[in-house]
Amino acid sequence: MEYYTKEQFDFVLTQCPTSFGETYLNVYTDDKANAVESATKVMKYGKSCDMDFINYNEENWNLYYKALNTALLLGVFGVATVMIALVILWNIHMSAFDQERGRLGVLQALGVTNREIALRYLGKGIKTGVISLLLAHLCLGAVILLTAGGFRGLSGYPWGLHVLVCLGYFILVAAVGCGPIWELKKYTPNENINV
Known about the structure:
By secondary structure, the chain is mostly helical. Helix content is 73%, strand content 0%. The chain has two domains: 48 residues, no CATH class; 129 residues, no CATH class. It has seven helices and no strands. Helix 3 packs parallel to helix 5 and helix 4 packs antiparallel against helix 5.
């Protein structure tokens, strides 16, 4: 690889203006110099020699911001999807509770405490959360294996954030599973039996 100073490059261009043909040049400037002034000088010089310039630094930043926007958009879609799924799960649990209210009223009349019923619903919520997280991670692993060919490229992955998101999701699903407990406390055993 050859390096030319500005003076050497000017000399070659004046002696042999077409000697380079279509050539790609890397232009290095002083790191201590003002980046905007250096870029302006290089662009002016290039235009005087009929050259087209691509600023890879700007291209990289544009690519970075496009990727960031895409990631944020996917994150918003993910949050919206989780919220919709939680609303559906809430409605399923409340519907099941309405169907079981008579049976729960009989159990309450026989001496089963609200705490025991709450533990049953909590167990269902925990089971739902564990199963959904396992299925999601199995699907994620399959996608990574199919697209990337392995898990080697995950060294820069934010595992701490991943664990926090999974923990938050698990707590939300368990809380949704406990939703009927709050409804159960509103009614007496007689009201539950006479549904």
